[in-house]
């Protein structure tokens, strides 16, 4: 099953703290919903992403790929109520395995 992932995501330091990152994440969440995607994955700081609706993926049965730096940083936003979420280990495509 193909899943969407939002990351890496970054804002230049001189532009941080002005809402650009949050706007990018919100637009991505809306775009994924418009496409009918059930979820959106991200690797990042939980303190940042949890306020935007992301949860630890492993708590919902989605295990991070071996390339993930930290289990706690692998998160998911569920975009549809009542959708059956996939379970198991996420596998990155070849270009993202290095």
Give a quick set of tags describing it.
about 100 residues, Aminopeptidase, two-stranded parallel ribbon, 2 helices, 6 strands
Concise description?
With 98 residues, the protein is α/β, with parallel strands linked by helices. 19% of the residues lie in helices and 18% in strands. It is globular, with a radius of gyration of 13 Å.
CATH topology category name: Aminopeptidase
The strand line-up of the biggest sheet is 1-2-5-3
The amount of beta strand, in percent, is: 15-25%
Low-confidence stretches: none
The CATH class: Alpha Beta
Q: Secondary-structure element order, as H and E?
A: EHEHEEEE
Distance between the termini: 21 Å
The CATH architecture name reads 3-Layer(aba) Sandwich
Class computed from helices, strands and strand pairing: alpha/beta
Q: What is the number of E strands?
A: 6
Query: Roughly what is the average pLDDT, rounded to an integer?
Result: 91
The structural domain count equals: 1
In CATH terms, the superfamily is: Gcn5-related N-acetyltransferase (GNAT)
| Major beta-sheet overview | 4 strands, mixed
- Tally of helical runs: 2
Give the % helix.
10-25%
Overall geometry comes to globular
Rg calc? 13 Å
Overall description:
- The chain is α/β, with parallel strands linked by helices.
- It has one domain: Aminopeptidase.
- 19% of the residues lie in helices and 18% in strands.
- The protein is built from two helices and six strands; from the N terminus they run E-H-E-H-E-E-E-E.
- The chain has a four-stranded mixed β-sheet with strand order 1-2-5-3, with helices on one face.
């Amino acid at each position: 099953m193909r899943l969407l992932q939002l990351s890496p995501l970054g804002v230049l330091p001189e532009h941080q703290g002005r809402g650009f990152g949050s706007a990018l994440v919100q637009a991505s969440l809306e775009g994924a919903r418009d496409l009918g995607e059930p979820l959106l994955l991200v690797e990042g700081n939980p303190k940042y992403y949890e306020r935007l609706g992301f949860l630890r993926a492993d708590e919902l049965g989605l295990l991070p790929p071996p390339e993930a730096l930290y289990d706690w940083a692998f998160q998911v936003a569920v975009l549809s109520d009542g959708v059956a979420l996939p379970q198991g280990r996420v596998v990155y495509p070849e270009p993202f395995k290095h």
